[in-house]
Amino acid sequence: MRIRSLDLLAFGPFQGKRLRFANDGGIEVVFGPNEAGKSTTRRAVLGLLFGIPERSKDGHSVDEVRVGATLIDTHGQSLDLVRRKGRKNTLLTPSGEPFDSEVLARWLGGIDANAYEQTYGLDHVGLRKGGAALKVGNGDLGESLFSAATGLTGLHAVLVALRAEADALFVPRGTARPLNEAHRSYTEAKKLASQLATHPDEWLKVEKQIEQARALLETLRRERAALAEERARAQSIAAAARSLDANRARVAELDGSLALARAELEGLSPADDLLSRSQTIAELQERLGSHRKAQLDRPRIAAELDAIEERARKAKRAAPANVESALPLAPSVRKLVTDAASLRARARVVQTREAETAEASKRAAADCTSDVGDDESNDLRDALELSRSEGKLEARLDEARAAAARDRAAVATRIASLDVPAKTLDELLAMTVPSSDVASTHARAAASHVERARGASDRRRRLEEEHAEAERAVAALRAEGDVPTEESLEKARSERDALWDAIRDGTNAPSGRAAGRFERSMTDSDELADRLRREAARVTRLAEAEASLAATDRKLAIARDEERALAEEAAASARAWSVLSPRSPEETIAWLARYESACVAARRAIESEHAVAPLESAARTARQALVAALVREGEAPAADAPLARLEQAAKRLLAARDEAHASRTVAAGALRVAEREHAQAVRDHAALERDRATWETEWSGVTRALGLRDAASPEEAEAALEAAALLARIDEEADKVRRRLAGIDRDAKRFTSDVLEVCEACASDLSPRAPEEACAKLARRVARSSAERAKRETLEEQARRLDAQAREARAAFDQSSNALESPEPAASAELRAADLEARLVEVDDRIQQTSRHLGSVETGAKEMPKSPAVEQAAEAQRQLARVRDLAERFARARLAAAAVSRLLDKYRRENQGPVLTRASSLFATLTLGAFEGLEVGFGESDEPVIVAVKDGRRLETTSLSDGTLDQLYLALRVASLERLTHARGPLPLLLDDVLVHFDDQRAAAALTILSELAKHTQVILFTHHTRIVEIARRAISDRDASPTAGIHDLGA
Amino acid sequence: MRIVHAADLHLDSPLRGLAPYDGAPVSAIREATRRALENMVASCIESKASLLLLAGDLYDGDWRDFSTGLFFAKEMSRLREAGVRVVIVRGNHDAQSQITRALRLPENVRELSHKKPETVVFEDLGIAVHGRSFAERVVTDDLSRDYPAPISGMLNFGLLHTCAEGRAGHEPYAPCNVESLKSHGYDYWALGHVHQREVLAEEPWIVFPGNIQGRHVRELGAKGATMIDVDAGRIASVEHASFDVVRWCVSIVDVAASAGVHDVLDAAREAMASELEAADGRVVATRVIVRGAESAVSRVIGARDAVTAELQAIANDLGNVYFEKLKVETTSKAPRPVSGEWVDALATLADVTDEELTSLAAEALAEVRSKLPLEIEGGTDGLHLDDVNVLRALLNEAQQALVAKVREEAGEEGSPLRGSRGA
Question: What is the ipTM, given to two decimal places?
Answer without folding.
Answer: 0.91
